[in-house]
Amino acid sequence: RGLPPRPVLGADTEVVLGDAIFGKPADVDAARQMIARLAGRRHEVITAVALRWEDEVEVALCVSHVTMRKLTAGQIERYVATGEPFDKAGGYAIQGLAAAFVTHLDGSYSGVMGLPLAETAALLARIGRPVL
Fold this sequence. Notes:
With 132 residues, the protein is of the alpha+beta class. It is built from four helices and five strands. Helices cover 27% and strands 33% of the residues. It has a five-stranded antiparallel β-sheet with strand order 2-1-3-4-5. The chain is elongated, with a radius of gyration of 17 Å. The protein starts with 7 loop residues before the first strand and ends in a 6-residue tail after the last helix.
């Protein structure tokens, strides 16, 4: 008398600038440094999605490119003081206040947020559970 089987979905996002990989900032100083390094530059946001269904695992990768405008030390300080950078890969949330910093996005907005919806829907369709 168990529950019916359900798919299990997992995703993780990293921000990449050159050879540097930015996860979630550990503290205020790390958040400041991440935003300062990203400001005025183009970087990659990579989100991997994995879907387990029965004995199979399906995987998709979403790569987007984000360009941020140059920021002053004061702007970075005020942004970090909001608390938004914490628990966010790269120390920023494109769906939050940091949207004001983004000058260009080439790729998936939902992927930068942390769950690329088109890729997730495609994975679900592969196991016979289409979104629409």
